Amino acid sequence: MGMHDEAPDEGLVFFGFVKDARGAPIANAKVTATMNSGNSFIVQTTATGLYRLPTFSKQINPADVTIACAKEGYKQTRVTRRPVVKADPPKPVETECRMERG
Amino acid sequence: MQDGARLSSVVRHFLLAVLVLAAPAQALALSGRVSSAEEGPMEGVLVSARGAGSSVTVTVVTGKDGSFSFPALAPGRYSLSIRAVGYEPDSAGEADARENLDLRLRKAADLAAQLTNTEWFMSMPGTNEQKRPLIECMSCHTFERIARTKYGAEQMFDVLKRMTTYANNSTLQKVQIRKVERKYDEQNLRKLAGYLATVNLSSGAWSYPLKTLPRPSGRATRVLITEFDLPRKTIAPHDVRTDASGLVWYSNFVENFLGQLDPRTGKHVEFAYPVVKPGAPLGALALEADQAGDLWLAAMFQTGLVKFDVRKKSFQLFRLPGEMNNDASQQSMVMPAQSQVDGKVWSNEVSKQSILRLDLKSGKYELFDPFKMMGGSHSPYGLVADARNNLFFMDFGGEAIGRVDAGTGKTMIYPTPTPRSRPRRTMMDRDGKVWFAEFAANKVAMFDPAKETFQEWDLPTPHTYPYDVFVDRNGELWSGSMSSDRILRIDPRNGASVEYLLPRQTNVRRVFVDNATTPVTFWVGSNHGASIVRLQPLD
């Protein structure tokens, strides 16, 4: 009946890559986006190390979202993102999560 | 000589045993062959027999050579019917319980009357985008009903607008009006109306050929199906389950009754529970059991949860308090399976896209809003709890499953690998894995909470719209199509699948497998057909 039709995705989008120390993509890594509230989204990276989170509410400030990555045999070294400020309309936030063996 | 004598004695005993066992079965069984001028002997024809004055219909399927054979039937006259898309019987069928029949079929005069919704989906021209909104229509009726209208776009829009005032728990036999109409986007509704006016009879005839699915073959013909008609046409069985004693219980989607059927005797009992919200649609959706074996209903627009004490045969109502209750409030789901852990029962509040948790001691409800952080449209649907009463929920409005931690109340959202999958109903297996149907993705899927990973299985027929999935004791998956009248059996280890066709139009919802029999027994309610369906695979 069209009542369930998806609303246009106007909210905040997080996407990015998980890479190793040499910059090679890491597949099947777990990426967690955690809000200040403690609620979180969890996705896996593709074969090219890419992840994309479902659309956040427009009310969410990107600064209130923490991105972390994990995979057995690796530890996270750093996470970078751009842009870092809130925009209206919201701009997609690209992150890069680096991990090294150990 | 001695050996020969012993052998013949063994053979004699064996034969005697066969005769004794088979005497009521083989010797008196109704049997025969089905053929047509076009095909000769026909495989995969469903042949149904119903005794005079009986509410039970038994169905078998013809094998490769067109032959069929019923199990033992009580003596008497039986009316016969068949299902083979494109065909109809040459003459009105009636037979004796022990007859051997030669059933001749001829081409059906009215093919459109035989199409399933899946076949309409296949036949109607248009893009998937144009057809997608139709999946809301089939909750209440067939597409044949739409295709036979003569409305132009403007009249069709008026019809669709009227439909937004109907509750989702409506059937053709019992239309229920919502206290507040569903929200809709006028532009989308006009688009749909315009599309429907191109596929109905507004121009005098259908401009497209009617396509059909193949008949069952091979393994899909080795099945016995029994339909138990319920005493009123208005009864809409939604969730069906059996208990340890073999009794069948079901929720009624449009009336405030809990139903019970004894399949051995055909005895049917209804337990009425009170109307707590006058003027709101009646009926319940989810039916679940707690560890004590007591039954729980999600009271839909009547709001709140209903517990049935199976031993005392009495109801206890857990009402949604006034400050949480609004005219659109709706509890479609209940999950009491692990309530013994912490005294809490999970539910949902559809009007707020939220999760509810009932504290049994205080009778109070807590609200969790897992989608608060998300954009887009969402709707928590199927629920299942793990051994610690942590909740897993399906986002039927979107493309994720979620977890609510019983201790902290924190939620985790896991998007499915396939976008726009619309996960619907779910169950947990013995290893704690979460199985669910991806209604809009034509897949069934498994989420492993320990590894936080998904696995998905494609269904063999497009436009299947699986509502639910059940893992049996052998690790096989059972699912049902809401649109093709087919029950699916899938081995997730190799992806092999069987599609059993049901004898009548059957709007399949929750599926259930009784693991106590060998082979297992599959049960489902015919939501629009007022019957309970039992499917017994013969292998």
Note down, in words, how this protein is organized.
The complex is a heterodimer of chains A (102) and B (539). Chain A has 102 residues and is an all-beta fold. Chain A has one domain (14-101): Immunoglobulin-like. Chain A contains no helices and 7 strands. Chain A has strands spanning 14-20, 30-34, 40-44, 50-52, 66-70, 74-82, 93-101. In chain A, the strands form 2 sheets. A 4-stranded mixed beta sheet of chain A has the order 4-1-7-6, with no helix packed on it. Chain A has a 3-stranded antiparallel beta sheet with strand order 3-2-5, with no helix packed on it. The radius of gyration of chain A is 15 Å and the shape is elongated. With 539 residues, chain B is mainly beta. Chain B has 3 domains: 27-109, Sandwich (Immunoglobulin-like); 114-199, no CATH class; 218-537, YVTN repeat-like/Quinoprotein amine dehydrogenase (Methylamine Dehydrogenase, Chain H, 7 Propeller), CATH 2.130.10.10. Chain B has 8 helices and 37 strands. In chain B, helix 6 (153-163) crosses helix 7 (186-199). Chain B starts with a helix and ends with a strand. At the A-B interface, strand 3 of A face helix 7 and strand 26 of B.
Summarize the structure.
The complex is a heterodimer of chains A (102) and B (539). By secondary structure, chain A is mostly beta strands. Helix content of chain A is 0%, strand content 42%.
As an assembly, this protein is heterodimer
The number of domains of chain A is 1
Name the biggest interface. A-B, 29 and 37 residues
CATH architectural grouping of chain A: Sandwich
Task: Give a quick account of the main beta sheet of chain B: strands, pairing sense, barrel closure.
Answer: 8 strands, antiparallel
Please provide the count of β strands of chain B.
Answer: 37
